[in-house]
Amino acid sequence: MSEPSETEDRKDDHVRIIREEDVETSGTGFADVRLVHEALPELHYDEIDTSTEFLGSQLDAPIVIESMTGGHPNTTEINRALAAAAAETGIAMGVGSQRAGLELDDEELLESYTVVREAGPDAFVYGNLGAAQLREYDLGTVERAVEMIDADALAVHLNYLQEAVQPEGDVDARESLTAIERVAEGLSVPVLVKETGNGISQGTARRLADAGVDAIDVAGKGGTTWSGIEAYRAAAVNERRHEQVGRLFRDWGIPTAASTIECVREHDCVIASGGVRTGRDIAKAIALGARAGGLAKPFLEPAIDGREAVVDMIDGIEAELRTAMFVTGSGSVKALQDAEYVIGGATAEYVDSRR
Asked: Could you tell me the pTM of the whole model?
């Protein structure tokens, strides 16, 4: 095996820092959202239907294991556990950026991606490329990312704040929307666009909808801070200026609840992620109009323990979601989208001021 590349080392750094350091922010806005209790739900708990249509497929529950990792041999077993659990429970899963798999000739590294289809032959799995790289790739190269994992969809991630904090970051954001539109029009599978912890505004959601993307993942403020992660990396190599900027911007962004409200005004398939931690959070997001809710960091430690630990966590989240559906009188995900809710606090102020 060849010496690890800069990209491989960065992937390994990310997993290590997420496990060992304080990389959490607060303020998703979900604490300001209250679902209205239904004392007479007129439902049987066991007959509640948690299934949902998602990008042409049917999920057993509106839960997404958000894109986390891949691109380093150390992540192969993590992705194996996640994919096997996603297949067993009928939910969706994304892989981390496939840039390393496309650009580096390394079979062991490639396995960190291809393992997801091996472990989850029937799972809904989506690929992942950055918008910064999308501008450099022709459509054939992007299709290779799809073929690499026999993907059901492709995510294009927007991480320009992270790139600005990285000492080696790509900070040329020009023509990104044009590249997204080109891929959305020509790719063989649906395309979703996701942020990486800073949220998507209504105006950006409108531009993405006009560009033809099939789904938007808000990935708002309130969960893992990639600016904070890159600040730790910058400190380790004595890049003080990047460290300073990373720490300053670690809580930057649109809170997840507010971003969800804005994006559903422009697109009918929105995933709420960014600090989502429970099935009740997912229920709130769906009541706000989302199609599903996504989690990343909470799955990392269970994935290291193996498939059974991930399945156990998914089952717990599904039970929390089902209970929220029961006590709002929502027999289906579609009914939950019509559930009554009240918004207060800073989220109400944010949403009102944005109107």
From this structure: 0.94
Q: Evaluate whether residue 298 is within a structural domain.
A: yes
Domain assignment of residue 272, yes or no: yes
User: Could you tell me if residue 76 is inside a domain?
Assistant: yes
Measured CA to CA, the distance from residue 332 to residue 150 in angstroms comes to 30
Task: For 250, list phi and psi in degrees, rounded to 5.
Answer: -65, -25
Ligand-binding annotation for 69, yes or no, is yes
334 is in an annotated binding site: no
Domain ranges, residue 184: 27-34+52-321
CA pair distance 296, 276, nearest whole angstrom: 9
Residue 183 marked ligand-binding = no
User: Hey, what are 169's tokens?
Assistant: 């970051």
Check whether 194 is labelled as a binding-site residue: yes
The annotation status of 11 as a binding-site residue, yes or no, is yes
The pLDDT-based confidence of 228 (bands split at 50, 70, 90) is confident
User: Would you say 128 is a known binding-site residue?
Assistant: yes
CATH classification at residue 311:
3.20.20.70
Number of domains in the chain: 1
Q: Is 51 annotated as a binding residue?
A: no
Q: Please tell me whether 10 is known to bind a ligand.
A: yes
DSSP codes of every residue in 165-229? HSTT-----TTHHHHHHHHHHH-SS-EEEEESSS---HHHHHHHHHTT-SEEE---BSSB-HHHH
* Residue 1 pLDDT greater than 50, yes or no: no
21 labelled as ligand-binding? no
pLDDT of residue 11: 67
pLDDT at 4 > cutoff 60:
no
Query: Does some domain include residue 43?
Result: no
The answer to the question of whether 224 is labelled as a binding residue is yes
